[in-house]
Specification:
The protein is an alpha/beta fold. It folds into four domains: 4-20 and 178-324, MoaB/Mog-like domain (Molybdenum Cofactor Biosythetic Enzyme, Chain A, 3-Layer(aba) Sandwich), CATH 3.40.980.10; 36-45 and 145-176, no CATH class; 50-138, Molybdopterin biosynthesis moea protein, domain 3 (Molybdopterin biosynthesis moeA protein, domain 3), CATH 2.170.190; 333-403, Beta-clip. It contains six helices and 28 strands. It has helices at residues 4-16, 162-167, 207-217, 232-244, 264-270, 306-324; strands spanning 22-26, 39-40, 50-51, 55-58, 72-80, 95-99, 111-114, 118-121, 124-127, 137-138, 149-151, 172-176, 180-186, 190-191, 203-204, 221-228, 249-253, 274-278, 282-283, 289-292, 298-302, 333-337, 341-342, 348-357, 363-367, 384-388, 394-395, 400-405. The strands form eight sheets. Strands 7-4-6-5-9-8 form a six-stranded mixed sheet, with no helix packed on it. A six-stranded mixed sheet has the order 16-13-17-21-20-18, with helices on both faces. A five-stranded mixed β-barrel has the order 22-25-24-26-28. Helix 1 crosses helix 6 (306-324) and helix 3 runs parallel beside helix 6. Bound molecules: adenosine monophosphate and magnesium ion (MG). Adenosine monophosphate binds at residues 185, 187, 189-190, 203, 205-208, 253-255, 257, 259, 303-306.
Length: 408
């Protein structure tokens, strides 16, 4: 049996062999995709000096002595609207130019005085104060400078990124293609139809809808989701047809322990797959397995207990997807545990926790009751996985722990 750390290294190595291809997608569709190339600012933003207010562009030297007691009047020599081209005629002494928000400022303009602060009489504009240098002018390149790297490959693109990218005229972004995968639930006891009544000995197949939903959230394209009723022939033929699909990975739940019907490892060996590990010192999910099919598809055999499957998706499959897209390793969140907790040293544990942030700025986690690997009721309240390393056997209230959100 290997440690969690060793398993992580083996996952990374296996996934490095299946780095995903890239594709260009419209900027409007980038949410939650992973940037595959550094994005360079194709122009400067603002693209030209312009006014931040509706008002009058002035030379400060004209208004040095302006005050409410000593108003100064300048002659308006023009009007520029947003959308007008940049003028080349500079402001001259004694004049001002009426300017709208977003309109290019005339050369030499030193400030824009808002319209609310002047008195206008036809083309005679009266000022009552000296504006500060550059007041209400937005300068070329204040937001972005042409040629700057504005986003790095390997980072997740969010909906918020659409605004700066569209501002820069970035029409398409190169992202990693979604990994293609299949999910197989195994178990004779499983009922897929959640509206059908259960017969004696049956349970609903909860892993399947949960896993498919989580995988989709992780950006995976689910090519096939099936249920195998612990029938070896059905499993063998499902595996054979999935192998032809050349998937990035296959995930199964159940049938990897030591039970009589735990056929996953045996069948994988039979078809010549390389078993990379089988059994990791973790809880829940110890019998977890990673294999590589002869065609290179990775195979994650997750134990069937729903929490073990959930842990497998979050801490074994997700890091593999991360590696396939060149995403940096994940950093945990740190918080203090609210209660003491004892565990067996020698097993790395993943616990269901509820995260809280307090008014004084402190962060805590409540390790919820019901940590057994079959118990899903805490999923109604859990917001974080609490990650407890192998060597720790006891946590006192107030000890710092590492947390990982349900999805990265
Ligand atoms: P296994 O890993 O196949 O030995 O299954 C371990 C436990 O998880 C058993 O109690 C199974 O009934 C349960 N289980 C397996 N697969 C599922 C599933 N898809 N949905 C809900 N429970 C499952
Ligand atoms: Mg089973």
């Amino acid at each position: 049996m290997i440690s969690y750390k060793e398993a992580q290294k083996l996952i990374t190595k296996a996934a490095q062999g299946r780095v995903l291809q890239t594709e260009a997608i419209p900027v409007s569709e980038i949410s939650n995709r992973i940037c595959a190339e550094d994005i360079i600012a194709p122009l400067s933003i603002q693209p030209f000096d312009n006014s931040a207010m509706d008002g009058f562009a002035v030379l400060r030297s004209d208004l040095t002595h302006a005050s409410p007691e000593n108003p100064i009047t300048l002659t308006k020599i023009g009007v520029v609207a947003a959308g007008d081209p940049e003028t080349t005629t500079p402001l001259t002494t004694g004049t001002c130019v009426q300017i709208m928000t977003g309109a290019p400022t005339p050369p030499k303009a030193e400030a824009v005085v808002p319209i609310e602060l002047v008195e206008a009489n036809e083309n005679e504009i009266t000022f009552f104060a000296l504006p500060k240098q550059n007041d209400n002018i937005r300068f070329t390149g204040e937001d972005f400078k042409k040629g700057d790297i504005i986003y790095k490959a390997g980072c997740k693109l969010q909906t918020t990124h659409i605004l700066p990218l569209a501002t820069l005229g970035v029409a398409t972004v190169t992202v990693f293609k979604k990994p293609r995968a299949a999910f197989l639930a195994t178990g004779l006891e499983l009922v897929d139809d959640l509206s059908a009544p259960l017969s004696s000995g049956q349970i609903y197949n909860s892993n399947r809808p949960y896993s498919v939903a989580i995988l989709e959230k992780l950006g995976v394209e689910i090519v096939s989701a099936q249920t195998i009723h612990d029938d070896l022939d059905a499993f063998a033929s499902a595996l054979a047809s999935l192998e032809k699909e050349n998937l990035d990975f296959i995930i199964s739940s159940g049938a990897v322990s030591a039970g009589e019907f735990d056929f996953v490892a045996k069948q994988l060996e039979k078809i010549g797959a390389e078993i990379i590990y089988h059994k990791v010192k973790i809880k829940p999910g110890k019998p977890t397995l990673l294999a590589k099919l002869p065609n290179g598809t990775l195979y994650f055999g997750l134990p069937g207990n729903p929490v073990a499957t959930a842990v497998g998706l979050r801490f074994f499959v997700e890091p593999a997807i991360r590696t396939m897209m060149g995403i940096m390793p994940e950093k945990p969140i740190h918080a203090k545990t609210m209660h003491k907790f004892t565990k067996r040293a020698g097993l790395h544990m993943f616990l269901k926790g509820q995260f809280e942030s307090w008014e004084d700025g402190s962060l805590t986690v409540d390790i919820l009751d019901g940590q057994a690997s079959f118990m899903v009721s805490p999923f109604l309240n859990m917001t974080m996985w609490v990650d407890i390393p192998e060597d720790i056997s006891e946590l006192k209230a107030g000890d710092m722990v590492d947390l990982y959100p349900l999805l990265p």
